[in-house]
């Protein structure tokens, strides 16, 4: 069923400006197809279709566009939603079916409405016949989909993004040009097919795995020599049992530069990356045994020892504290220069942080991005820690701490750091709006900080607006 599309007057007026106003001659239509396609590439797909009514020259141009973006924008609150959604799906079908023999560079299908799995299979198959290079499919939860077998042997694919519920169990995989792979909510069927999958893209540079199903996997070893960016996210809401899964995922990536990991430690992720320079790690325990959670946390961090910049969460520090021999087993971060704690800290996690700093002898910058939990009681004696990080005496030059209201916990922390940091050059204290907007409170806080004893004569303390 063809969808009737009427060109809005505003669109018609905008396009008419492209004509020569002196003699009415349509100069733009005389441009070669390649140039017209380039111009059309800046328009949404629906507006590209609308240009077909301008004149005969434009009538079929849209059937050879190389970039197709089809996003569900039907309003579910309207009474005619069923009719509109059916019309939109027919529109999608028509665009893909009438496309000429030219290649499709990019196809993006993003739907919130329920879609018949056979239609999705058919649309992807059409794109494959047109030597698709970049394919993105995002579909709602609640329905399982089956991917066409031909997808796994598409030699033209360079980018593949699948955000949908489906089982990945290909019998044959060959992606010689794939450089970016994003998988979200997919389930890996078994070890052999999964191992084959992750061995089939020699040029892969970017890998994103979000909320994937690993229930059928005991152990896989992924070796991707050209991988430079890995994002792994596993959240609480998809865990089917209360126990940690007996699943070990080893990733060997000699050229990995960036790692972003958010994990409930449901699976045991092990990284081997000698070139890694930047990492963001947020681990948390949803209810597993502390020792096992701590062991998995230690193992995960042990593979990223080469980082120069590390962002870590307060929950990650909590997980580390559960390890049986935490103080001995925390790896040494010889190259670490910048360390940021991305969540509010407690008395316990401050102590864990100091142990981590002790294993970071060359640390230069410490950023406590969200300050310290304010509803806990501190006394002066609380700051007699068992560990004294060596970096305080030799390398730590900059400290940044956020969300300071003038309460005792953050002041005590700063007092401790100022007392023991002998080469410190700069301390940046970021105030919340309630303090920044009041000159009296701001000056009071500044005076509190300036009278704190310092081991470094060159240390400058600055009171700044909050970065939150």
From TrEMBL:
Residues 25-72 form the F-box domain. Pfam families: F-box (PF00646), FBD (PF08387), LRR_2 (PF07723). CDD domains: F-box_AtFBL13-like. InterPro entries: F-box-like_dom_sf (IPR036047), F-box_AtFBL13-like (IPR053781), F-box_dom (IPR001810), FBD (IPR006566), FBL13/AtMIF1-like (IPR050232), LRR_dom_sf (IPR032675), LRR_PRU1-like (IPR013101). SUPFAM superfamilies: F-box domain, RNI-like. PANTHER family: F-BOX/RNI SUPERFAMILY PROTEIN-RELATED (PTHR31900), SUPERFAMILY PROTEIN, PUTATIVE-RELATED (PTHR31900:SF30). This is F-box/LRR-repeat protein. It comes from Abeliophyllum distichum.
């Amino acid at each position: 069923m063809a969808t009737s599309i009427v060109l809005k007057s505003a669109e018609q007026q905008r396009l008419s400006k492209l004509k020569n106003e002196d003699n009415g001659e349509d100069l733009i239509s005389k441009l070669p197809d390649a140039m017209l396609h380039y111009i059309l590439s800046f328009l949404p797909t629906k507006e590209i279709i609308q240009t077909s009514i301008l004149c005969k020259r434009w009538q079929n141009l849209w059937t050879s566009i190389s970039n197709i973006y089809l996003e569900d924008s039907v309003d579910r609150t309207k009474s005619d939603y069923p009719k509109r959604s059916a019309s939109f799906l027919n529109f999608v079908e028509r665009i893909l079916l009438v496309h000429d023999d030219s290649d499709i560079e990019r196809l993006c299908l993003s739907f919130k409405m329920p879609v018949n799995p056979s239609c999705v299979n058919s649309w992807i198959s059409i794109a494959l016949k047109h030597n698709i290079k970049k394919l993105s499919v995002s579909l709602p939860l609640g329905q399982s989909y089956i991917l066409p077998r031909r997808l796994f042997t598409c030699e033209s694919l360079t980018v593949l993004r699948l955000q949908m519920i489906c089982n990945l169990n290909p019998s044959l995989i060959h992606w010689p040009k794939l450089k970016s792979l994003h998988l979200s909510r997919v389930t890996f069927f078994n070890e052999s097919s999964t191992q084959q999958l992750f061995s089939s893209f020699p040029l892969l540079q970017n890998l994103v795995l979000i909320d994937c199903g690993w229930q059928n996997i005991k152990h896989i070893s992924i070796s991707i020599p050209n991988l430079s960016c890995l994002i792994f996210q596993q959240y609480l809401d998809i865990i089917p049992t209360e126990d940690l899964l007996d699943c070990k995922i080893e990733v060997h990536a000699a050229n990995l530069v960036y790692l972003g990991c958010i994990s409930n430690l449901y699976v045991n992720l092990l990284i081997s990356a000698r070139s890694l320079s930047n990492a963001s790690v947020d681990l948390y325990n949803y209810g597993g045994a502390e020792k096992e959670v701590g062991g998995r946390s230690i193992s995960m961090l042990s593979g990223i020892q080469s980082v120069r910049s590390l962002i870590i969460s307060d929950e990650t520090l909590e997980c580390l504290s559960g390890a049986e021999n935490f103080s001995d087993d925390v790896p040494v971060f010889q190259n670490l220069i910048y360390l940021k704690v991305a969540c509010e800290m407690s008395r316990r996690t401050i102590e864990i942080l100091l142990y981590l700093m002790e294993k970071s002898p060359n640390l230069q910058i410490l950023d406590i991005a969200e300050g310290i939990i304010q509803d806990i009681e501190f006394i002066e004696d609380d700051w007699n820690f068992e560990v004294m990080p060596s970096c305080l005496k030799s390398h730590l030059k900059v400290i940044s701490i956020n969300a300071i209201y003038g309460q005792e916990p953050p002041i005590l922390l700063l007092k401790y750091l100022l007392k023991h940091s002998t080469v410190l050059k700069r301390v940046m204290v970021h105030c919340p709006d309630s303090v920044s907007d009041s000159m009296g409170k701001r000056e009071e806080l500044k005076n509190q900080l300036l009278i704190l004893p310092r081991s470094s004569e060159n240390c400058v303390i600055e009171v700044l607006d909050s970065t939150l």
